[in-house]
Structures are given as structure tokens and as C-alpha cells.
Amino acid sequence: MNTWEAIIDALRAERVEYVFGLPGGDLFYDALYDAPEIKPVLVREESSGPFMAMAYARLTGRPGVCYGSSGPGVANLVPGFMEAHSACIPIIAIGSASNLATTGMGAFQEVDQLSIMKPVTKWSESITLAERVPWVMRRAFSLAANGRPGPVFIEVPKDIGLLESRGPEYVPSRYPHRSCGDPQDTEAAVDLLMKVKRPLVVAGGGAVSSRAFEEVRQFAELSSIPVMTTPCGRGIIPEDHPLALGLVGLYFTEVGERVYGDADLLMTVGSRNEDFQSGERQFFPEGAEYIQIDIDPHEIGRNWIPDVAIVGDAKLVLQDLTGLLRNRLKEKAEGNGRKDMLLKAKEEYEEKMKAECLSDAVPIKTKRVIRELNEVFGKDTILVNENGSQDLWSYYYPYYKVLDINACVAPGEQTCMGLGVAGAIGAKLAMPEKNVVCVTGDGAFQMFMKELPTAVQHEAPVTYVVLNNFSLGWIKFNQKRRGERFIASDFSIQPDFIKVAEASKCYGERVERPGDIRSALERALKANQKGTPAVVEFIVDGWDFAPGFKRFYERLG
Q1: Are residues 232 and 328 in contact, defined by beta-carbon separation less than 8 angstroms?
Q2: Does the chain have fewer CB atoms within 10 Å around its N or its C terminus?
Q3: What is the DSSP letter of 182?
Q4: What would you measure as the largest C-alpha separation in the chain, in angstroms?
């Protein structure tokens, strides 16, 4: 076999289901033709490939694979790799390159691709000898999925791709390799937990990557410790669980912010505590102790210095903590007064929220759209987020509750616009038995609505909830704060999203009155159940921002 065929052989051995990308002038796709078990997903623009691979990887726990042709094709992978690197998602890109034999001679599409990709990858490597394919590919999968997960880039010069490969037989990689924490650190953490009265767990994307769903629930229930999450940690626990209190930082709701601020111990599990989660490191509960759990020692103390740090896999660390804590709690009577208080506060807040969402105001209030979306689609639904001023409402529990474990795909701290629009297709292909909804603003949707035909062609019936305020709402919000100097933030000319949807063979509907929200969403769900993607556009009040969003900027000053 030649080099390209050896790469396909490796992908087959690694149980790869999909390759997201757009073919170029090499023979990668020719080799893929002979591997029908690996399905090529033809994107409309290369940037979509890593976004789809990210969503697939987040939900399956296996590396997502994408492809970029030499030069501009590889360059278009960079935004997705920035996002995957930030969110610690395992994706692997195969990229072709100009001929090795003409390096430095100004060859067609010649560029130093490794230097472009190195800042946003765990590893970037060029295959310069055909017999190295098995070693490079096995290491790519191992590095992407083990330790702190992340993206890997593999480059194949076109002339090397044609050479005969006589490497050893391919041996699939193993992942995840898990490590426990230091027993002394685990003991010290339990000592702290026994001393405090109001501990709080904040689970990040690392907890989801570890698949520590059951471990987080058991740990929290053992002594009634409330659980909050970062956007990437969302889905670690169902948000209708009595101890779930939504998201932190920018995404605080009234009850969550109060409980967070009152905590006398904060325990983060797999989170870097980045700006939006930590309020630029200013939101740490006053006087609280801090336990940090992370698989990567480089993350320890990155933003807040812990009193106790445990380096290890979240799943195993929580198992050890739970076992030790259970034994210690037998010696100490533990009431449920705090749990009862939390339940009462949550119930009161949810009643207040439900009343808000009954608004019949025109333009429509986004919070009502989000609430009714949650009610219509219900359980067995994966939420794929964008990150704009209006779609941000979908981050705010309990306006939207993620009702199942592993049922949310959110951007990392890069928040690339379009991740959700493209990523929803990867999510549906990863979990075809689930409903998939993407909540997006009109700005992000315009950037990646070109992938609607991709959803149709590859039988990925998802629903796009497009919240149209005819502007870049987050930009306008800050322009207003700076003295209402509005510039380059309004879409005075905008495509007809419904016509775009229909031209792409999708179901489309525009909603301008609150009374039509539910029925439109029900029609979208029925279209999905029949195999058709749906676009439902809502004309919304662009100045109705979530309270936590406004409060975030008030606190920062």
C-alpha cells in the first residue's frame, strides 16, 4: 500500500466512523474510497470540518477526524483547532502539503503548515518517510485522547503520499490511560471537606472528558454538595437534579451566584477557571478554601492557587474521594438542612422564571423561546451552543435545563462563531438517536448557514433556533456601555433565512408573535423526526439581556 492507504488502514483500525472535510488535489480520498466503513462528510468550507469533529468527539469520547487540503485548506482548519485546543477536545486533522522534493522552491500552495498549527495543537508532525505512518498515526491518536485531550495535526507531503509504505502492522492506540491522585493529597482534600460547612463543586470540561458522570453524582449526593458547571462541563449532571445549580461566572443565575458566593470551599474538577468562568479571576468566594482537581499538572494554580491540588483523572480521583469521605461521614451525623434550603431556593426561583417566560411582548423575549424549546424537545435532546448575546439565554439554567448526562456541546474560551451551527451536524452523526438543537444568533448563523445542505446530504436532521435581532448584540451591548457609539454592528441588509433553508431542502419558518412559538417548534421537531433539518427564525428583542450577563459586567466595572 502507499502512504495514503496506510493512513486509511490506521483510521480503520482506530474505528474512525467519519472524516469531516473537503477534498483537495491529493489521493487521500481515493484511498478512502476503499474503506466504506469510514464515511466522508463533505463540508461546504474547510473551517466546518474541525467544528463537526469537535462535537463528535465531545459526545463519543473518541477523537474526531477532519481533513484539509494543502495551503488554504489547512489554514482554514485553524479556527477549529483554536477552539479544540481551548476546550481540550481530541481531534485529528490529516492535511496534505506541497511536495517535499520542492521545499523552498515556491511550489504550488507551499507554506510552513507546521508552524501555523503548532501553537494550537498538542502535536504537529509531518510524515516524511512512508514507513513512519504506523508510528505517527498511533501516536496521534494516543496524544489526542490521553492526558489533557486536545488537537493533533498530521501533514503528508503529496509526493510522500504516493510512496510505497512498508511499515510494521498497525497496532491501535489505547485510551484513556487513567491515573489516580496522590493518596496524601486525597486525604488532605477529605480533611478540608470534613472541616467546612458549605462546599461547592464546579465541574469543567475535564470532568466530561473523563466520563465522570456517575462519580460526580455520587460524590455530590453523599453529603449534599451542590454542583455547578462551566459551559464545557455542562451535562456532567442532569440539571433537574436537586443539587444542580447551573453555570458559573458569566452564566450565573440568581440562586447560583448566591450559593457560589456563600461557599466556604470551592472544588473545581477539570476546569482552568478562565475569564468567563472566574470573572477574570475576581469571583472567588471570599475566604473560601480551594481544592483543584486536574489531569494536567500544568493547570494547577494557573489562575487560583489551591489549598489542596490533586493531579489525576477526574473519574478515579472522585472515586477515591467518595470512598474516603463515605468512611469519614460514618463518624459524623450529617443532616440535610442545606439540601432542603437549596431545594426551596430553586423552587422559588423557578416559579419566578416561569412567570417571566409568559411574556407576550413583541418583539419576542428570547427567554420565552428558550423555555418553550426546552419543553417541546424535552429529554433525549442534545443542546449545541453558540455564544452571542441572545443565544446566551440557552446557557442559563433553568431557562433551559440540560436533562440528560452528556447532552451539551459548548464552545471553549475562544467562542468561535459558527462552532454550534456546523457542530450540530457532527453531534447528530455522533448520536443519531437523539434530538439535536442548535441555538444561534443571526450573526453566527450567517457565517455557517452554508452547511445546511451538508445536514441534508448526510442525513443529519437538526433544528436551528435562529434568534434574530438584526445585529451583533454583544458588540452593541458594550458599545452602549461606552456611550452609545454604535458602528458596524447592525445588519441593515440580511438574507431571508427561511428562503435559504427551503432552498437547501430544509424546513423553514419565521415566528414574530409569542403565541406561535410552541407550534413552530413542534413542527420543527416533527420535520426532524421525518429526517428533515429545520430552521426556525424568531424575531427577538435585542435589548433583553439575561440578568447574569448584565451582572457580570457590573461586577467587573
Answers
A1: no
A2: C
A3: P
A4: 76
Cell 440578568, residue located = 547
Distance, in Å, from the CA atom of 488 to the CA atom of 481, rounded to the nearest integer, reads 16
Q: How far is CA 463 from CA 148, 320, 432, 500, in A?
A: 32, 41, 13, 14
CA distance 22 to 51: 13
DSSP letter assigned to residue 298: G
Name the strands in the sheet holding 18-21, side by side, starting at the edge strand that comes first in the sequence. 39-42, 18-21, 64-68, 91-97, 152-157, 123-126
Which 3-state string (H, E, C) describes 500-539?
HHHHCCCEEEEECCHHHHHHHHHHHHHHHHCCCCEEEEEE
- Give the tens place of pLDDT for each residue, 358-403: 999 999 999 999 999 999 999 999 999 998 999 999 999 999 999 9
Is the CA virtual torsion 408, 413, 418, 419 positive or negative?
Answer: negative
Cα separation, 60 vs 406, in Å, equals 9
Q: What is the CA radius of gyration of the chain?
A: 24
Please report which confidence band the pLDDT of residue 331 belongs to, taking 50, 70 and 90 as the band edges: low
Query: In the block, which residue shows the cell 508510528?
Result: 135
**pTM for the complete prediction?**
0.96
- As a whole number of angstroms, the distance between CA 150 and CA 89 comes to 5
176 SS3 class: coil
Which helix (DSSP H) or strand (DSSP E) does residue 275 occupy? helix 275-278
Q: How far apart are CA 315 and CA 213, in angstroms?
A: 8
What are the structural domains, with CATH classification, of the chain? 3-161 (3.40.50.970), 183-330+337-344 (3.40.50.1220), 357-551 (3.40.50.970)
**Cell numbers 455547578: residue:** 228
By C-alpha distance, which of 369, 359, 390, 364 is closest to 463? 369
What element of type H or E holds 257? Answer: helix 254-262
Question: Which grid coordinates belong to 537?
Answer: 427564525
Q: Residue 367 carries which side chain, given as an amino acid letter? A: K
Asked whether 220 and 201 are in contact (CB, 8 A), the reply is yes
Location of C-alpha cell 458602528: 487
Query: Cα(398)–Cα(396) distance, rounded to whole angstroms?
Result: 6
The 10s digit of each residue's pLDDT in 219-274 is 999 989 999 999 999 999 999 999 999 999 999 999 999 999 999 999 999 999 88
Find, among 191, 197, 195, 258, the residue nearest to 225 by Cα: 197
Which H or E element spans position 217?
helix 213-222
